[in-house]
């Protein structure tokens, strides 16, 4: 996926990140993993500190130790690792200002358990494919929180446009399921060396300015309460 320097800057400049001077963000993702864009550039461009994890894989116990030893304030966890730490090392979350998670279905029960143990911590649920640099929408969850159904995907980031469309690219009203298309800030140029695949997934945006494109995600979503996106499934399932 061909992401530009401008895409990275747009991501780091989003007003939703709760990162600033005095914060310490753990970088533990591989460089090829899109969340590394957050772990490196968001703190560096906002006056915070990047704490580089030691080489090699890190399990829940090792991450818990790093948070305690290195004074980590912000941490990203995959949905699976978030669930494990919520079950086995929930006290760790009380040391964090914010934990980010996503990339798969995040357990609402795990979020409830974390916020019950760490009421001053924010759990930020992220959604978005690499084709939009990292994420297109996000949903911060804070205490008090009680799990009831799945977590919403949230609202768009700054300068990002999201559309819920039918097969004829017509916008759908709240509560009606359609395919998610993403446009605006962070949209990648396409797939390097794969013009056919790029043309299939990066299509003309009929709602933007001439020449604008949007990314066809293949995800089925709907607009829910308070203008938040809700995940339903995949169009190819």
From TrEMBL:
- Annotated Gene Ontology MF terms? phosphopantetheine binding
Tell me which InterPro entries the record gives.
Answer: AMP-dep_synth/lig_dom (IPR000873)
User: One biological process GO term for this chain?
Assistant: amino acid activation for nonribosomal peptide biosynthetic process
AMP-dependent synthetase/ligase domain: from which residue to which, for each copy? 1-191
Q: Name one GO cellular component term.
A: cytoplasm
The protein's UniProt keywords, in alphabetical order, are: Phosphopantetheine, Phosphoprotein
Which PANTHER family does the record cross-reference, listed alphabetically?
A: FATTY ACID SYNTHASE, NONRIBOSOMAL PEPTIDE SYNTHETASE
> What is the designated name of this protein?
Non-ribosomal peptide synthetase
Q: What is the native source organism of this protein?
A: Streptomyces violaceorubidus
């Amino acid at each position: 996926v061909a992401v530009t320097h401008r895409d990275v800057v747009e991501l780091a400049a989003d007003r939703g990140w709760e990162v600033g001077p005095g914060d310490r963000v753990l970088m533990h993702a591989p460089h090829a993993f899109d969340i590394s864009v957050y772990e490196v550039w968001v703190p560096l461009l906002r006056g915070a500190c990047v704490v580089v994890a030691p080489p090699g894989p890190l399990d829940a116990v090792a991450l818990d130790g790093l948070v305690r030893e290195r004074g980590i304030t912000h941490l990203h966890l995959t949905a699976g690792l978030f669930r494990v730490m919520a079950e086995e090392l929930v006290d760790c979350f009380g040391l964090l200002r914010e934990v980010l998670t996503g990339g798969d279905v995040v357990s609402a029960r795990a979020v409830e358990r974390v916020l019950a143990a760490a009421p001053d911590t924010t759990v930020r649920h992220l959604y978005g494919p690499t084709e939009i640099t990292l994420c297109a929408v996000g949903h911060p969850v804070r205490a008090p929180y009680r799990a009831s159904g799945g977590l919403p995907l949230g609202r768009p980031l700054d300068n990002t446009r999201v559309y819920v469309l039918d097969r004829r690219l017509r916008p759908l009203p709240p509560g009606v399921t359609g395919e998610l298309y993403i446009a605006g800030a962070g949209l990648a140029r396409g797939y390097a060396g794969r013009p056919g695949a790029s043309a299939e997934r990066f299509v003309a945006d009929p709602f933007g300015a001439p020449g604008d494109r949007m990314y066809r995600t293949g995800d089925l979503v709907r607009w829910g309460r308070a203008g938040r996106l809700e995940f339903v499934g995949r169009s190819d399932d």
